[in-house]
Amino acid sequence: MAEAPSSLVLRRPDDWHVHLRDGAMLRAVLPATARTFARAIVMPNLRPPVTSVDAALAYRSRILEALPEDIDFEPLMTAYLTDDLDPDELARGFAMGVFRAAKLYPANATTNSAAGVSDLSRISAVLRRMEAVDMPLLIHGEVTDPDVDVFDREAIFIERHLKPLRQRHPRLRIVLEHITTEESATYITEAHLSGDERIAATITPHHLHLNRNAMFIGGLRSDFYCLPVVKRECHRRALVAAATSGLPCFFLGTDSAPHPRSGKESSCGCAGIFNALHAMESYAAVFEQAGALDHLEGFASEHGPRFYGMPLNADTITLVRRDQSVPNRLIPPESARVGDDAIPDSEWPLLFHAGETLSWSVEPTVR
Ligand code: DOR
Ligand code: ZN
Questions:
Q1: How far is the CA of 137 from the centre of ligand 2 (A)?
Q2: Residue 316: what pLDDT?
Q3: Of 95, 183, 264, 346, which is the most buried if we count CB atoms within 10 A?
Q4: What is the CATH number of the domain that holds 253?
């Protein structure tokens, strides 16, 4: 058996799904993403959501302003689809290179999605235009029908909405985001194996590590609550198999979603897991356990840019086999601890893997 490597040099990865938030939270969490990932698809579910080219340009400027000077990082902006977003505005933003994709939140499916799409029929003109200009559609794939069990919402979305949508718009480029079920993994794999290169899926670190028991160990654990909610162990295993398969239709998207502590420690805790600080170490643990470290670079650094038609990054990161214990909370940089919107100590977000020891560490990029 080959000896386990002591370090891994990887083409620098990108994060194809992240929540960077705004204001002090943006200043707090951005370095965690930017120190490792060269680019990231930035979710538009701010309050108010990013629904115009001007709003995306302004948000992009705020991100670049919050970026530490010694880090190279490119935020890739997305548009938040609503029932009445103008197809011309969307296509204009895409042609300008401001919008890289548009995000479909079914209305009320998740955090800040109240202004999302109430019915796919309301956005047929938008979807036709996206199909014509080859603009990717990023889908939060869950039905919002209250009669459907929370744990079945993703699988039913595929049957009720995704399959008909793909029949209506066969040329539309689609990413099914943060998949959580065997049904999704199978659906995407089969589409790929049948020669369809226009659909792919992102997979988060937390859905690779957790099954639904995590939310109930010793009490009600809102720190492990995210949307789509983590599922049974058989689904987690199917996701590991998909992520580590080497298939180009699966790629990295952390869905890192920080919330102030009081938002999680509540009788109605927010959905979202903040994993940006140790994301690559977290993925490496899964790939190593699956005996698939040789597929990590494809998943993290190659499949995403190829799907989006963007160049691969030229620089590298190094993962070294060195234990690190994960602290409980993010200690934000000074810039997030000052100002009118400063984050008080009590609100610093909890880290994914808090209290655990991870056996890989990302070496700081030397420039
Ligand atoms: O867990 C989640 N958190 N899922 C989402 O879809 C949204 C995100 C957030 O914005 O907090
Ligand atoms: Zn998300």
A1: 14
A2: 96
A3: 264
A4: 3.20.20.140
